[in-house]
């Protein structure tokens, strides 16, 4: 029996420990087979082996596949994408996340041309899947692929970049909450690789998330507020972002107040004294009297940052006066 035959038998075992042992030998077997036979035989075998297998074994395979870079060049790693794409559709979160992580690491090493030609197809197929789990994976692959493709000349890159942007904004509006939440989670990384000219579209989607009933994307995106303010130049868009943030300082949900309180110092540093005093100072000061201890605690954490970015007169008049009452708090978490 050849090494490859032993591998095929071992990886098909009913015993999970035996199966895992052979999954970890995938790269070694591939090296013995060589590139041609790995592409023609081993990879198709593994692709057919994946359905209905143990989540633990699938997770291990998703990680092990990346090690085939020891055999293939970065661009030849396109040959493993079908297996990883299949694993990225799995029901089990850890399997999907392992597959997405391996794909993103592969993309990082690929040439922009190959990423454009291979990855957009992978993302599109996941995006158009009827089941929601592939769509969750697709949004986690956009940023890395977009960044690589964007390094190409505009005429070569823009059609693919537009496809990825369109996919992302469609996923933000997906019917399934888990997909929308994944889109919100990935919004900062995708915005980071997009040109400033698309800021308006991101602000509009940001506002749409905060206008919805689901608080999970709002909590995810609260820290994204400062990233928008650092880049957005259109006054109407900046006003929209600040209005959203101000409303969350006084939101009915204490979780939103708690999350927004943590961002006050960083946002004050961006706005400087006059704008912060005009728009956010009073809502911020109200947090010191909040009924929820965690909200008060997060508001207090911002005092040091505000002392460095606000004019001394404003800080002493408006904020310093709260320090004595806060010091008198009986709760040790506050004091």
UniProtKB/TrEMBL annotation:
Q: What ranges cover the HEAT repeats?
A: 80-118, 280-318
What Gene Ontology molecular-function terms does this entry list? protein phosphatase regulator activity
| Keywords per UniProt | Repeat
Return the InterPro entries for the record: ARM-like (IPR011989), ARM-type_fold (IPR016024), HEAT_type_2 (IPR021133), PP2A_Regulatory_Subunit_A (IPR051023)
Going by the entry's taxonomy, the superkingdom of the source organism is recorded as Eukaryota
Q: Which GO terms describe its cellular component?
A: cytosol; nucleus; protein phosphatase type 2A complex
Its protein name is TOG domain-containing protein
Organism of derivation: Blastocystis hominis
């Amino acid at each position: 029996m050849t090494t490859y035959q032993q591998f095929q038998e071992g990886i098909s075992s009913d015993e999970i420990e035996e199966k895992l042992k052979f999954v970890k030998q995938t790269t070694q077997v591939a090296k013995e087979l060589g590139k041609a036979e790995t592409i023609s035989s081993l990879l198709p075998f593994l692709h057919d082996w994946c359905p209905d297998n143990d989540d633990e074994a699938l997770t291990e395979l998703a990680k092990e596949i990346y090690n085939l870079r020891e055999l293939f060049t970065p661009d030849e790693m396109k040959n493993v994408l079908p297996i990883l794409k299949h694993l990225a559709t799995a029901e089990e979160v850890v399997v999907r996340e392992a597959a997405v992580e391996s794909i993103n690491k592969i993309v990082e090493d690929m040439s922009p041309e190959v990423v454009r030609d291979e990855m957009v197809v992978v993302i599109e197929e996941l995006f158009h899947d009827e089941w929601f789990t592939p769509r969750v994976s697709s949004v986690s692959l956009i940023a890395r692929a977009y960044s690589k493709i964007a390094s190409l000349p505009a005429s070569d890159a823009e059609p693919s970049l537009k496809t990825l942007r369109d996919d992302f904004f469609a996923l933000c509006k997906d019917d399934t909450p888990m997909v929308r939440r994944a889109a919100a989670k990935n919004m900062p990384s995708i915005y980071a690789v997009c040109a400033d000219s698309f800021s308006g579209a991101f602000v509009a989607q940001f506002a749409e998330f905060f206008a919805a009933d689901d608080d999970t994307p709002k909590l995810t995106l609260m820290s994204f507020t400062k990233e928008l303010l650092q880049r957005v130049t259109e006054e109407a868009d900046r006003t929209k972002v600040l209005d959203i943030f101000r409303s969350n300082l006084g939101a009915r949900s204490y979780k939103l107040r708690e999350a927004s309180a943590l961002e006050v110092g960083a946002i004050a540093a961006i706005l400087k004294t006059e704008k912060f005093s005009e728009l956010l100072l009073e809502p911020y000061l109200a947090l010191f009297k909040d009924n929820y201890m965690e909200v008060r605690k997060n508001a207090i954490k911002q005092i040091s940052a505000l002392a460095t970015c606000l004019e001394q007169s404003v800080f002493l008049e408006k904020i310093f006066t709260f320090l004595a009452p806060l010091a008198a708090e009986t709760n040790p978490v506050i004091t």
